[in-house]
Amino acid sequence: MQKPGGHYTESSDLQLLYSRAISPFWNLQTGVRQSFNPDPDRRFAVVGFQGLAPLMMETDTALFVSDEGDVSASTEFEYEMLLTQRLILQPRLELSASFQDVPEYDIDRGFNSSEIGLRLRYDLMRELSPYVGVSYERNYDDDESTTALVMGLRAWY
User: Fold this and answer.
1) Considering the chain, what percentage of its residues have pLDDT values greater than 70?
2) Which of 11, 57, 74, 119 has the fewest Cβ atoms within 10 Å of its own Cβ atom?
3) Which pLDDT score is estimated for 113?
4) 57, 79 in Cβ contact below 8 A?
5) What is the pLDDT of residues 88-126, one digit of tens each?
6) Could you say which architecture CATH assigns to the domain 4-155?
7) Residues 29 and 18 sit within 8 Å (Cβ to Cβ)
């Protein structure tokens, strides 16, 4: 989407997930994901696990099946370093892969992208936290990389 001033949004995703505890440190998640792209939008069914791996590393792994039957997966690792009781520095790593070629979206089978980043979050309440950060993303399908400033709001209930 082209924005005034020449800036544009390359893509964005919205996930709505239901999470259920299956052990003291792990949740099973299921739901839907909507991808908004310059190309046609895509919808996915999602199933995944979220939890706390050894060394207190937050792990979020998901399997996606698109409305066209394409299967992909992603995994994300985060570590929280408390600077104060409310200010948290969070290094993160994300990997994405596809289980088959999807030519209409220029996606090849195998690892598609990796992202490494650092976020600084402030907990207004444990359930509501704005954050700012920086990320470096490498896309293996078209051999491009980008560095971006990220801002967002983490919310849960």
Assistant:
1) 92
2) 11
3) 94
4) yes
5) 999 999 999 999 998 888 889 999 999 999 999 999 998
6) Beta Barrel (2.40)
7) yes
